[in-house]
UniProtKB/TrEMBL annotation:
<dbReference type="InterPro" id="IPR002035">
    <property type="entry name" value="VWF_A"/>
</dbReference>
<dbReference type="InterPro" id="IPR036465">
    <property type="entry name" value="vWFA_dom_sf"/>
</dbReference>
<protein>
    <submittedName>
        <fullName>von Willebrand factor A domain-containing protein DDB_G0292740 isoform X2</fullName>
    </submittedName>
</protein>
<feature type="domain" description="VWFA">
    <location>
        <begin position="256"/>
        <end position="434"/>
    </location>
</feature>
<dbReference type="Pfam" id="PF13768">
    <property type="entry name" value="VWA_3"/>
</dbReference>
Length: 676
């Protein structure tokens, strides 16, 4: 369900909710919506965790405590309407460690809109940032409990097929949804939903919390932590951090920047317009000592200039005009050619920070060759080789290719899965990548340790306002102190003392699980290594962070049966009554995949929508395999899937009429023969 469809379902639900009579005592009724405001689809999206009743039969909508006996509503809601439930309690706990926050939300909602003797599904929706991850969900409904679990592909194949496919996932990158199924059968005296009265306090105020790390100058340190007895990896964990400090007059490197913008046909419309706006803003952030150039590409190259241009008012104004005139969507995608062109443009850069900014929404077949070629260029140029920062637009590009490309060259990676966020995220991405204050950072830890594994493998530059954090595993003995070395903007060397501390309060493995999984997945894709893939799976299973190789499912547990199983096990029974007997629902949309080359070749509009459910792909695949001996069956299936509903009805009626005529002719022939 896309966000527009979700907003429409909520709007339908609010209309249905008007049927509910709250009684004279408004104390227990949900607050009335704010009047005098024009309702837009965006305003119907939740700004806080919310639970909705999923209503496909409008006749079941009523106050469970005070029936209104309103006239019956005929028909069905397709798609189902979503009625916001009455919140009774909400609590939030946030644990902040380094650059990561773990947020735990506990809430209680009352199903105030469904008849007491009826039931429905409920949908939990949690708004979150694009960089956030869902670690787990636990739900208690009556005597049933639901919890999420991460499992690998092998375990998924060994278990029975999930009972349902509409378990949830991301409605859009900022909205995580999970459907809590209704009870299909119940015992006498046990209701699915609890209707409790509680004192409620409603508020329309937003809660903001922020904190800053104060320091006059840049500083750093190293945190060490021993593994737990349950940790499969018994190597110690380390975390190296560098903070840039608050000095505003810290000199930034002189920049030589090449912007590479994808203008293939799939970028047409809002995505390309937002990219152009962000590009124009980035040009205004350059200073008079910098140089720049712009390359727009599809199958061909379109360069603003044949050489690097100084940043002057005239040149920047010419660049704005060139962007409006030349940056127009059309054609295919070829990434290797513009990257090689940008490397050549920056081959003579001296005493500066050469940087390439690549923005694309497509996936190409030679992505591994591109990474290998850029790695060769980086090795030849040495420490001052161009940094390649990558930005992915939508879901059709291979984000792990872009992550790997930026990691190889010490650049920055970012992405926008929502067209409305492209401009703002690109601006932050450009500021983070283009304002280094310390480059070529090295820490001599390899001579002191027997074994070390570092994420990322190439230490990035330290930029203004952005802490630098590197983590990993090691074997050996860490010294009491270390030194980090780097180069400042005036090409002088800086040495930073790093104090080594042991910590137990910060769960380092949990903090860096997502980063390690993403980097391992990118390296596993690039090297096609099964060993790295298995390592990513182990971290994902241990940390409950979904990955490209693991799945999240929603498990239903009957608390009464669970207590009975415990009693049976207590008396020595070996019978397994584990999760095989539980209702399992697959949660979709947690993996971004490795790009879609076919969508790029066909220039399909940039993918921001909901991915296809596996059940659809499963049926389609079975149909193709079933009919692959007949000519063009796959294309017939594709064509039929795109037919208009009314056309299908007309075709069905025509086929029925032809069948009737065929039967009539057959009967006439039979009658005539018998009469003869």
């Amino acid at each position: 369900m896309a966000d527009d469809e979700f907003a429409k379902a909520v709007e339908d639900g609010l209309k249905l909710a008007k049927r509910i009579y709250a009684g004279k005592d408004r104390h227990f009724a949900p607050p009335r919506p704010v009047g005098g405001m024009e309702r837009s689809p965006v305003s119907l999206l939740p700004a806080a965790p919310m639970v909705y009743a999923v209503v496909d039969d409008p006749g079941i909508v009523d106050n469970p405590d005070i029936p209104s006996y309103q006239p019956h509503v005929y028909g069905r809601c397709d798609p189902p309407a979503l009625i916001p439930l009455q919140m009774n309690e909400i609590a939030l706990e946030a644990d902040c460690f380094l650059d990561t926050a773990f947020v735990a939300i506990r809430g209680r909602w009352r199903v105030h809109c469904i008849m007491r003797n009826r039931s429905c599904d409920c949908r939990l929706v949690v708004p979150m940032g694009e960089q956030g991850s869902i670690l787990g969900v636990e739900v208690e409904v009556g005597r049933k409990s639901y919890s999420t679990r991460v499992m690998d592909e092998e375990e998924n194949q060994n278990m029975e097929k999930p009972a349902r496919n509409e378990g949830g996932g991301f409605l859009k990158p900022q909205l995580f949804s999970l459907t809590i199924p209704e009870e299909r059968s119940r015992q006498a005296g046990i209701l699915t939903f609890l209707y409790e009265a509680a004192v409620e306090q409603w508020s329309h105020r937003e809660f903001y919390f922020s904190y800053s790390v104060y320091s006059n100058d840049l500083f750093g340190g190293i945190l060490l932590q021993s593994p737990t007895m349950y940790d499969l990896d018994q190597r110690d964990t380390f975390c190296l951090y560098l903070f840039p400090g608050n000095i505003q007059n810290r000199k930034v490197f002189r920049r030589e920047v090449v912007f590479i913008v994808d203008i293939s046909g799939s970028m047409e419309g809002k995505p390309l317009e937002n990219v152009k706006n962000a590009l124009s803003t980035a040009l205004l952030e350059l200073t008079a000592v910098d140089k720049f150039n712009i390359i727009a590409f599809n199958e061909e190259l379109h360069s603003f200039s044949s050489c690097m241009e100084p940043v002057t008012e005239v040149k920047v104004e010419n660049a704005h005009e060139w962007i409006c005139k030349t940056v127009v969507a059309g054609g295919g995608t070829n990434i290797m050619h513009p990257l090689n062109e940008a490397i050549d443009l920056l081959s003579y850069a001296q005493d500066s920070a050469p940087h390439i900014f690549l923005i694309t929404d497509g996936s190409v077949e030679d992505e591994r060759d591109i990474c290998s070629t850029m790695r060769t260029h980086v090795a030849k140029r040495g420490s001052m080789s161009p940094r390649i920062s990558t930005f992915g637009v939508g879901s059709y590009c291979n984000h792990y290719f872009l992550r790997m490309l930026s990691s190889i060259s010490k650049g920055q990676y970012d992405a926008a899965y929502d067209p409305d966020l492209i401009e703002s995220r690109m601006q932050r991405w450009f500021m983070r990548a283009s304002s280094p204050i310390v480059m070529n950072i090295t820490v001599d830890i390899f001579k002191h340790l027997d074994e070390v594994e570092v994420y990322p493998s190439h230490i990035p530059d330290l930029s203004v306002g952005c802490p630098l954090i590197v983590s990993g595993r090691y074997q050996g003995k860490f010294p009491d102190s270390l030194k980090a070395k780097g180069i400042l903007a005036d090409m002088s060397e800086i040495v930073i003392d790093l104090e080594v501390k042991n910590t137990k309060d910060i769960p380092l493995e949990k903090v860096f699980a997502k980063q390690h999984i993403d980097l391992l997945t990118a390296e596993a894709w690039f090297s096609e290594s099964k060993q790295l893939k298995e390592k990513a799976i182990k971290i994902s299973m241990r940390s409950s962070v979904p990955s490209e190789y693991t799945y999240m499912i929603l498990l239903q547990t009957d608390t009464e049966k669970q207590d009975a199983v415990k009693q049976v096990k207590k008396h020595g029974s070996q019978k397994d009554a584990g999760p095989k007997n539980c209702l399992r629902i697959r949660v979709h949309g947690l993996a971004i995949g490795f790009g879609n080359v076919n969508a790029t070749l066909e220039n399909l509009p940039t993918g921001f929508g909901e991915p296809k459910l596996p059940e659809t792909n499963y049926v389609y695949e079975k149909a193709v395999r079933c009919c692959d001996n007949y000519c063009c069956c796959m294309y017939i299936i594709k064509a039929c899937s795109k037919l208009n509903d009314r056309l299908v009805i007309v075709m069905t009626q025509c086929c029925a009429a032809l069948s009737f005529l065929g039967c009539y002719e057959c009967c006439c022939a039979a009658c005539c023969e018998s009469s003869n």
